[in-house]
């Protein structure tokens, strides 16, 4: 049980990942398959002429064809609003076996001038059956734009795209009229013969394929199953990327399980030293003894692997019905994947052999005289010069690689930097650093323990004895704490990198989408001075501001200077400075973006000279940005300074946010802007809506990916906690006489319980300190390599929560062994050891 627990967890999580892939794949394929099941053949134009209505009619007349529909895709900007909007367009019959959409509300268009929209378009553009849309289509001669007004006849839901973008649907001929095209990009064919059939049915399908190729010269014809398989592969591609990332971190959890199993085997074999010595005394050779112990480990691994696989398969079968109770529709895997199951069991057996190899070789060399001595404690003497030299060598290699990457960090605007290669070297350096920690762990335990144990020594006898118990077996403490440190290092590094990348993501949002809407002049170079005030009068709009931009000369190249107040960007999203401060911009001071700061070699406090309309302007650098500036600005100065330079007083850009969150708030804000720009006292202007929806979606993807990684890395911590529980259990068994003696000397059962619990908590403390000491510096290096503009942010609160939770969990892992220790009778002190 002790040696197999960590391996069982490893087998469970590995095969659990396999079951997760089965569930995700089955769910995605079932929900988001584009080509309907009824499609037997798919026809696409080849090098020949396009597939028009005439060709479609020929296909429909071909013997064996039951139904054929044409599909085309396009899109159109929408008129009727000052804010630019876009609607994708797709041809679909709307009803029948070949339809890719299902009607939700209203009716599907059957006549000219009608269109159905999906739920995404209805939500974002506030559409309902009976509403009208104005499509802006190019004129047939390509000169100018025509306005086509259509009526929204119904709301549909797509089974192919899951409504990922606003889309309109109509039958092929009607959509062709709207788009001004006559050819189809694809023809879906339904026959009475299924494409997956065999024998004579497959022969009929092959004959039909040839007839269609003759009817439509140059067309490519493929089975519907082939098209569905391709779409299924594309649909699960994103999930596969996530699962591949999970697989990488699962390898870490498996490695942690091997470390724990190795330590456990070593302790167990040390407990059996008298038995092994007796076997040596009656003639067992070290080779045969080592082989027997390896076989024992392999049997343990195979049993643990089989148990873990069965447990993961059972949980995988339970996930879909449980998820269904919470409103998530998941598909149940059809069967147990036999190949993956066998490989997982065999792999667990191999891991057990690797884990038992070193302890078995050490145990097989026991002297026969050990049969006359008491059982060993399982604590080897702190390893000698060889292990120390190995650890120092690994540490030196890690430091050398880290320094190499530090010296070669990219500068702003460097597009030649190979980040993948650099991250690979950083990971290699981190691996060497962890190997150094494994090798030097026994020598690090006592110094770290002496630093953290000062308050424990003041808590009474139980605290002092706990410190002595951990410090008295530094090798064992290191073997457990190193696994804990691995989990803490990876989780802490992920949290730190996530915090830094989130800070950079907020900065990027502030640069790329500083406001919901930005208004700039179409034909002239500036806007009406009263536009900002008119917009601010609408309660649907908030944070309305105006600023100016102008061209300046820096050296031999031109740049953009602006009086945008960097403190007025989107609420809740603030810019950060690489050097200096953005809190207040004094007169004759300037904020410089990262690219120009690097090119000029300036930082906060330096002087810079710009030319405006041939006149030099001397400014003091108040701050430099970590990346680009909002709205393409390179230099930012106070408004009074830009006026003194001679810039026009009229604004060039006005920004505004919707006063309410959500799609309805944006719709009302769009209407307010449209009313302002198309009012009787103001001519039409051009308005561009800079939506932050895509940026928020990117942030959500980042959080989802990070959450997935943290959950997988949590498995490493789970393995480490299992190792703590196992070590504590074995410690209680081998220290019975010690606990009995303490009881005989007057230590209460509750004090013994506290002592063992505190020992387990100390494993968490040691692992947490070592893990954070290793993880935080590497997090800084990873952030700098991945995105040089990202500010390094340490989530001290989250790391403190992780550290505290880890100490509590490791302490809880020792509760049961501590209870056994507290029940030790004082008479054990005078008895024989087990």
Task: Label this structure with key terms.
834 residues; 24 helices; alpha+beta; globular; 7-stranded mixed sheet; 22 strands
Q: Concise description?
A:
55% of the residues lie in helices and 15% in strands.
What does this structure look like?
The chain has 24 helices and 22 strands. The strands form 4 sheets. Strands 3, 4, 5, 6, 7, 8 and 9 form a 7-stranded mixed β-sheet that branches. Strands 14, 15, 16, 17, 18, 19 and 20 form a 7-stranded mixed β-sheet that branches. It has a 4-stranded antiparallel β-sheet with strand order 2-10-1-11. Helix 12 (419-452) crosses helix 15, helix 14 packs across helix 22 and helix 20 runs parallel beside helix 23. It is globular and about 105 Å long. 41% of the residues are buried.
What composes the largest sheet?
A: 7 strands, mixed
Q: What percentage of the residues does DSSP assign to strands (E)?
A: 5-15%
Structural class estimated from helices and strands: alpha+beta
Per DSSP E runs of 2 or more residues, the count of β-strands stands at 22
Give the mean pLDDT: 80
If helices are DSSP runs of H or I spanning 4 or more residues, what is the number of helices?
Answer: 24
State the helical fraction: 40-55%
Rg over alpha carbons: 35 Å
Low-confidence stretches: 687-691, 693-698
First-last Cα distance: 18 Å
Categorize the overall geometry: globular
């Amino acid at each position: 049980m002790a040696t197999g627990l960590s391996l069982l967890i490893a087998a469970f999580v590995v095969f659990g990942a396999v079951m997760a892939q089965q569930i995700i794949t089955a769910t995605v394929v079932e929900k988001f398959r584009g080509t309907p099941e009824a499609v037997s053949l798919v026809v696409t134009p080849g090098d020949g002429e396009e597939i028009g209505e005439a060709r479609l009619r020929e296909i429909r007349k071909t013997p064996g064809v039951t139904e054929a529909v044409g599909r085309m895709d396009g899109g159109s900007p929408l008129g009727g609003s000052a804010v630019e909007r876009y609607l994708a367009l797709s041809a679909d019959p709307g009803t029948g076996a070949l339809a890719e959409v299902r009607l939700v509300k209203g009716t599907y268009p059957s006549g000219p001038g009608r269109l159905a929209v999906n739920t995404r378009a209805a939500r974002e553009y506030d559409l309902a059956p009976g509403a009208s849309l104005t499509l802006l289509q190019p004129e047939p001669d390509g000169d100018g734009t025509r306005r086509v007004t259509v009526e929204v006849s119904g709301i549909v839901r797509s089974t192919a795209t899951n409504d990922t973008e606003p889309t309109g649907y109509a039958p092929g001929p009607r959509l062709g009229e709207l788009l001004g095209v006559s050819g189809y990009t694809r023809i879906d064919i339904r026959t009475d013969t299924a494409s997956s059939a065999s024998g004579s049915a497959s022969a009929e399908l092959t004959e039909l394929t040839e007839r269609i190729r003759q009817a439509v010269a140059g067309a490519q014809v493929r089975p519907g199953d082939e098209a569905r398989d391709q779409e299924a592969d594309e649909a699960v591609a994103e999930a596969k990327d996530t699962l591949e990332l999970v697989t990488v971190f699962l390898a870490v959890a498996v490695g942690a399980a091997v470390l724990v199993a190795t330590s456990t085997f070593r302790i167990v074999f040390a407990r059996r030293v008298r038995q092994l010595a007796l076997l040596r005394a009656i003639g067992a050779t070290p080779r045969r003894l080592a082989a027997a112990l390896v076989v024992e480990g392999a049997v343990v691994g195979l049993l643990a692997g089989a148990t873990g696989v069965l447990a993961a398969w059972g949980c995988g079968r339970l996930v879909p019905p449980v998820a269904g109770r919470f409103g998530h529709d998941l598909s149940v895997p059809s069967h147990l994947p036999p190949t993956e199951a066998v490989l997982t069991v065999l792999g667990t057996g191999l891991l057990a052999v690797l884990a038992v190899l070193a302890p078995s070789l050490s145990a097989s060399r026991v002297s026969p005289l050990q049969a006359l001595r008491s059982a060993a404690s399982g604590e080897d003497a702190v390893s000698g010069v060889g292990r120390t030299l190995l650890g120092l060598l690994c540490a030196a290699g890690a430091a050398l690689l880290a320094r190499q990457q530090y010296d070669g960090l990219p500068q702003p605007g460097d597009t030649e930097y190979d980040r993948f290669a650099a991250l690979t070297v950083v990971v290699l350096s981190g691996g060497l650093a962890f190997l150094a920690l494994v090798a030097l762990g026994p020598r690090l335990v006592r110094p770290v323990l002496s630093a953290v144990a000062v308050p424990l020594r003041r808590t009474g006898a139980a605290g002092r004895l706990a410190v002595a118990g951990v410090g008295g077996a530094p090798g064992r403490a290191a073997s457990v704490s190193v696994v804990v440190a691995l989990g803490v290092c990876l989780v802490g590094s992920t949290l730190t990198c996530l915090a830094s990348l989130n800070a950079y993501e907020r900065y990027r949002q502030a640069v790329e989408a500083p406001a919901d809407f930005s208004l700039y002049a179409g034909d002239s170079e500036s806007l009406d001075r009263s536009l900002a005030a008119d917009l601010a009068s609408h309660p649907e709009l908030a944070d309305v501001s105006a600023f100016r931009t102008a061209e300046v000369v820096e050296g031999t190249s031109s740049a953009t200077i602006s009086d945008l107040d960097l403190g007025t960007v989107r609420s809740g999203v603030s810019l950060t400075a690489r050097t200096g401060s953005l809190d207040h911009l004094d007169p004759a001071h300037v904020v410089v973006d990262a690219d120009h700061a690097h090119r000029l070699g300036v930082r906060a406090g330096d002087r810079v000279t710009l030319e405006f309309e041939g006149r030099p302007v001397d400014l003091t650098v108040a701050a430099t940005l970590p990346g680009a500036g909002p709205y393409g600005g390179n230099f930012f100065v106070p408004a009074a300074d830009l006026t003194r330079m001679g810039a026009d007083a009229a604004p060039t850009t006005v920004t505004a946010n919707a006063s309410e969150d959500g799609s309805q708030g944006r719709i009302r804000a769009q209407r307010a802007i449209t009313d302002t720009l198309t009012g009787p006292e103001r001519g039409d202007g051009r308005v561009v809506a800079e939506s932050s929806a895509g940026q928020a979606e990117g942030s959500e993807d980042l959080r989802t990916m990070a959450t997935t990684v943290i959950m997988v890395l949590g498995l490493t911590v789970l393995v480490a906690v299992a190792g703590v529980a196992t070590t504590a259990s074995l410690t209680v068994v081998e220290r019975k006489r010690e606990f009995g003696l303490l009881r005989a000397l007057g230590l209460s059962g509750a004090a013994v319980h506290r002592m063992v619990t505190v020992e387990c908590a100390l494993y968490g403390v040691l692992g947490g300190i070592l893990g954070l000491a290793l993880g935080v510096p590497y997090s800084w290096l990873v952030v700098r390599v991945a995105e040089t503009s990202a500010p390094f942010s340490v989530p001290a609160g989250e790391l403190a929560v992780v550290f505290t939770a880890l100490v509590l969990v490791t302490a809880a892992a020792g509760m049961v062994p501590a209870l056994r220790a507290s029940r030790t009778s004082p008479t054990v002190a005078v008895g024989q050891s087990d």
